[in-house]
Design brief:
40% of the residues lie in helices and 13% in strands. With 394 residues, it is an alpha+beta fold.
């Protein structure tokens, strides 16, 4: 079995690691494909299915490599995102907010891709007692949308609240108002909103063409770091749903009908861990890449980054992963076995022992990551402090 771990001990750059890993995966898939004739009913437990997913895995790594090698577009992209920052500064000068952007780390991206494989096969096998067709898993893996992600975090200063106003309610009201304006604003700057992917990998269908491909633009004109640290488990949301179900929220959604199909609303419907946020994906036509935008209040961000959602989500995911291994018979589906082993091997890494150019770790907590191997790369830090410090907002 080929895994990312095989390439982390020779002092290579991240780019060379990705290139070697991608090339070797593709060559291995080519060997497996020899003699395989697809008959229209291939499943992921066949040699053809395994090879087909390995080819897709190789292309996924090549996509990451391309975006890391040719990152000039990030300046153009962040400048267009910055236009919404300026819009908010003009429309909401009384709010404090930050804009953050990041490129997902190589380790987290690989871990997440393999997690999609095990999650999809497990869910299908438990429901049908057989393994899924290759096409279904391929479609699921195409839902990886957040390699590049931006996050908007806002806060209402207490000095702006009128007597009787609730800080959290006011912040949520503005959060939804800003979320309603975002799709149409970015559409004018070559971004196209994507239909939200719900539990089970199905796209939302509410007045939009959601079957395969990108949706039409969302008309909302009338109106980052979710990384998972293997040691501590600061987990972001998956683009195509997580093992953790949402639970009923205590507030109605403030999203307008025309933008609702594009958002995953974890504010009105929080995760079981208590995680809350709004997530929306876009296709950047100018850069030919997907991005995700997360919107949340400062308290929601605190809960996700340093609160109980961090550790409790990690522990829950570990229990789910162990349950998946026990539910799918070992050896019955080599593709599942390999994806599971790759994911577990990454979680058990001793970072102090790996040798990657521009990366040094004393242990799994203390490290200097200058290449985006483990922590990802920051691409957009903007901060806006409330311009009024003593005036109530009407």
């Amino acid at each position: 079995m080929i895994s990312l771990n095989d390439y982390l001990y020779t002092g290579d750059t991240v780019l060379k690691i990705l290139r070697r890993y991608s090339t070797d995966l593709g060559a291995d898939a080519e060997m497996r494909m020899q003699g395989c004739v697809p008959d229209g009913s291939q499943t992921v437990d066949t040699a053809f299915g395994r090879a087909a997913i390995d080819f897709q895995h190789s292309r996924f790594l090549e996509g990451i490599l391309y975006q890391l090698e040719h990152n000039d577009f990030l300046t153009f992209q962040s400048n267009r995102i910055r236009e919404f920052y300026k819009y908010m500064a003009s429309e909401y000068p009384f709010l404090a907010f930050t804009f953050r952007g990041r490129i997902k780390s190589v380790i987290r991206s690989e871990e997440k891709f393999n997690g999609y494989i095990t999650e999809y096969i497990y869910d299908y096998y438990v429901k049908h007692h057989s393994f899924p067709p290759v096409e279904g898993l391929q479609k699921q893996l195409n839902h990886f949308r957040d390699f590049i992600a931006y996050r908007i975090v806002l806060s209402m200063p207490a000095c702006h609240l009128r007597p009787g106003q609730d800080k959290e309610q006011e912040e949520i009201r503005y959060l939804y108002e800003i979320a309603n304006a975002l799709p149409a604003f970015l559409e004018k700057r070559s971004f196209t909103a994507e239909p939200a992917i719900r539990q089970g990998g199905e796209a939302a269908e509410a007045g939009i063409e959601a079957a395969g491909g990108r949706a039409g633009a969302a008309d909302g004109s009338d109106g980052m770091n979710g990384e998972k640290n293997n040691s501590t488990g600061a987990t972001g949301m998956l683009s195509c749903g997580t093992p953790e179900e949402t639970v009923s929220g205590s507030i109605p959604s403030g999203l307008k009908p025309q933008v609702r199909p594009y958002y995953r609303d974890y504010v009105a419907h929080p995760k079981e861990s208590g995680y809350r946020s709004l997530h929306i994906a876009f296709f950047d036509e100018a850069a030919s890449s997907y991005i995700e935008v997360q919107l949340r209040t400062h308290e929601m961000d605190n809960f996700a980054e340093i609160g109980t959602a961090n550790h409790s989500q990690y522990e829950k995911e570990q229990n789910i992963i162990r349950r998946r291994r026990g539910a799918v018979p070992e050896g019955a589906c080599p593709l599942f076995d390999e994806a599971y082993e790759r994911g577990m091997a990454l979680q058990c890494l001793d970072l102090s022992k790996i040798d990657v150019n521009m990366f040094t770790a004393y242990n799994n907590e203390l490290m200097n990551d200058g290449c985006g191997l483990y922590h990802g790369r920051l691409i957009l830090p903007f901060e806006h402090l409330s311009r009024f410090q003593n005036d109530l907002v009407g």
